[in-house]
Amino acid sequence: MESFKALVAEQADGKPKIGLTRWTDADLPDGDVTVAVEWSSLNYKDGLALTGKGRILRKFPMVPGIDFAGTVTESKSPDFKPGDGVILTGWGVGESWSGGFAERARVKSEWLVPLPDGLGARQAMAVGTAGFTAMLCVMALEGHGIDREREILVTGAAGGVGSVAVRLLANLGYTVAASTGRPEQADYLKSLGASVIVDRNELSQPSKPLTSERWGGAVDTVGGVTLASVLAGTAYGGAVAACGLAGGADLPSTVMPFILRNVALLGVDSVNCPKPRRQEAWARIAKELPAEALDAVTTEITLEELPGKAEDILKGQVRGRTVVRIA
Ligand code: NDP
């Protein structure tokens, strides 16, 4: 049986031990579609998985990698045939089911989304789970209805979700305020369309239950005190799409923004997002994120370089999106 390159996590002393090795199809889980993986990406959750800091990996041996794009090589499903371009994000892949950091993956057909017209596999992974989540956040805000006269805040703006959210919101004509702890990324964020740069420290101190009404809406990737401050400063009738915990999983807030300002807290999950919404989000990504916009946020690395980058993303030192060349 032909072998292929795979980054495999084994369990050693309760921690994952990650190494490049060769697997065969017999090592892959039992799905109905096999994919030649061309591109994967590095997300915050992958950083947690590769370093063993977040107990993300639930099975061993396992190929981590929560997303990938590539071409179908074998299919028992009527929905896909060899040669089809596909994207996978979420569904526990790269957590309890072998994922994208290998030249081949076998998954359930219902988890796959066809590559939309106009989007290549590399572009799809330049978006990846983070960018897809950014689009879900934008859709959540749109569904709620946002006052276009006010600023929309993005926290963790220089990260993966943040960078794509800034670009999407700016493209849609919103005035985007980008909060970052890296002032040296101000020019980068302005190049993505941010009008205003907000120092992360302004939001990371405990705030009063309500502060002056500034944000028409927000995409929050940070959580913790930052999310509480964002809620406190959201204007009457505004909404905050909360998708991340880069700064903490707690929410030291009060009910005041909800009961006195009619503020809505919109939860955003990408892992179990239903298929129709996935397809809608990917179709919009293909239309609204031109290739040059993605190039500006993307760094390319190899599978060999990947383990070294895992710590960097947890330290908040990775800018924008990192695509991983698999084949
Ligand atoms: P990144 O590491 O690329 O971005 C996170 C950004 O948050 C950093 O770049 C940094 O931005 C900021 N940050 C980091 N640490 C802190 C801190 N201690 N306090 C305040 N800000 C901080 O990660 P991703 O964009 O891939 O993911 C962002 C978050 O969203 C993660 O928590 C991730 O788990 C979550 N996520 C959730 C998904 C879902 O389905 N709900 C899907 C994808 C991601 P800056 O330097 O600009 O301040």
What features would you describe in this structure?
The protein is an alpha/beta fold and 327 residues long. The chain has 2 domains: 3-115 and 293-325, Medium-chain alcohol dehydrogenases, catalytic domain (Quinone Oxidoreductase, Chain A, domain 1), CATH 3.90.180; 130-267, NAD(P)-binding Rossmann-like Domain (Rossmann fold, 3-Layer(aba) Sandwich). 29% of the residues lie in helices and 29% in strands. The protein has helices spanning 44-51, 121-144, 160-171, 186-191, 224-232, 256-261, 275-288, 291-297, 306-314, and strands at 3-12, 15-24, 33-42, 67-75, 85-89, 104-107, 113-114, 151-154, 175-180, 194-199, 215-220, 234-242, 264-267, 298-302, 321-325. Strands 3, 4, 5, 6, 7, 14 and 15 form a 7-stranded mixed sheet that branches. Strands 10-9-8-11-12-13 form a 6-stranded parallel sheet, sandwiched between helices. The chain is globular, with a radius of gyration of 20 Å. The protein starts with a strand and ends with a strand. Bound molecules: NADPH dihydro-nicotinamide-adenine-dinucleotide phosphate. NADPH dihydro-nicotinamide-adenine-dinucleotide phosphate is lined by residues 43-45, 129-130, 133, 156-162, 180-182, 200, 221-222, 226, 243-247, 268-271, 313, 316, 318.
